[in-house]
Amino acid sequence: MAKIMFVREFGPSNIPYLSQALGILGTMLFDKGHEVSILDNNTNYIRYSTRQIMRRIDEFSPDLLGFNLNTFNARKTYQLIDLAKKKWPHIPVLAGGIHMKYCHKEAVEHQADVVVINEGECIIHDLVDAMLNHGGNKKTLVNSVEDIPGISYLDTEGVYHIGPQESQPVLMDLDQTPFINYDLFNLNDFIKIKNDSIYLGFIVAQRGCPYPCNFCSESYLIGNVRDNSADYIIGYMDYLNNKYGVTVIGFGDNNFTLSKKRTDEFCQKIQERNLNKKFSFYCQTNVKTNVTKDQAGMLKKSGFEHVSLGIERLTEEGKNLVNKYISPEKIQESITNLKSSGINVNSNLLVGFPWDTKELVLEEKRLFDQIAPSLSQIQSHVIVPMPGTEYYDDHPVLKEWYLDESFFKAYDTYFSQVLVVYLGPDIIKMNPFNHSRETIDAIKKIYYGSLINTYLKRTEKFNYRILFLIPQGFDLFLAGLSFLSYKISDRLESVLFGKLKQLRFLLGTKFAVKKIVENTDGKQMKIENLISDKVESTIGANFH
Ligand code: SF4
Questions:
Q1: pLDDT for 90-144, tens place per residue?
Q2: 218 lines ligand 1 (CB under 6 A)
Q3: Residue 350: is it exposed, middle or buried by C-beta count within 10 angstroms (0-12/13-18/19+)?
Q4: Which of 68, 165, 419, 490 has the largest CB neighbor count within 10 A?
């Protein structure tokens, strides 16, 4: 049996998030008898430098190295692959992840020996066996993998190959995936106190999406939607609770309520087993699937506290242009049903499309302001042109923007953590679609206004809110200083605020512990209103 190491570079994201893909594949290989180590750099307690990651790889001394790429970590991952290939040319390098769906050739050109283009479960054992049998010889490696479907590689002549079939087999029965063994990860970097277990309570129990929203790479991915069964999810929850003390489950499904049958069955089983007294849930769904009154009541009774609705736009023009038309009545009905059942409803506004104008953007804001009183939170995002979508493919000037070093620097700052900033500021600065000055000003107004509003709203419903105003003011003051020092130099910001950022994160987690309160029966754990950055920002990250 072999030593296999998987690495996922910093996302970047403000939210600690353990790679589900590496967790599943790592667990499969571990269960087969391999020694597996997964280093995930997406924790807020530490950010490993490239040199530190190289040292960790050296210490583990793997027989095979695997890297998980999402568009945002591609640049840093390619740097790592380059260093690894220089230092250990005999170790075969495997690359996979969502970025590989469209950019598989790019990874091979950056020295990955083999790329998994799509999902890995169906081929991982054959592929790993083949890659381990190469004896340090490129020709043998190519011969070993050439019959495996759904991969790509360069042969010894430098000719690019895609495995026998362009589209590899995907796992149709998701219940075959193992429960993730999180012990394989650098778990100590994620779990410092009890409530950090919230980061292990993330379950992706659905893959694919039937809808064609044109800004979303998910709509271009595998069309066939697959779900885990209710029994599988409940078994997984029990496992996470017994092994890691998880009591808050967040579903990463694109549309949790898409299958009415599964939603009904899941809720029914949760209530039958009184699991709503032990767990709280949050999920996201698409308003196209329309949450009925009965369904909303059932979700609430089963312990769902937050539901995020992917609305994106409210003007008729905007909805049609993003290919996500939903009637105003349907949107309002879903919001009303959820809210009247006592569930917190969040949503988002997506701006910055090539066709956006000042007038259209401001009209969206006006309409979102109208529904705002019914929502716990509206977050504004600026569209990120993702490979595989028309907003990337139709704009050659954007080619490989994610490999530009200057692009992600604001991400890992204190002010970014405070305001849960994603790529917005960088994208606005980049102005990829050459918007006019007045359109950019309108986008800025909405985006930055939303950041501040969202930040303030997080504590709006807290008891004794007055007590939070002083630390909150101080927090914002530090965020301002962080921003100013970042303007001077990102290195300066990192030196001044690196430790403070970790402290803030730790305090935030402790604070969340207080807000996830015990109910009167002493057993039931509930999320009380809006709780700290933790759940809120996790939900924010999953908006679709
Ligand atoms: S935005 Fe949501 S509903 Fe639309 S394609 Fe993406 S995952 Fe599906």
A1: 999 999 998 998 999 999 999 999 999 988 999 999 999 999 987 667 888 888 9
A2: yes
A3: buried
A4: 68
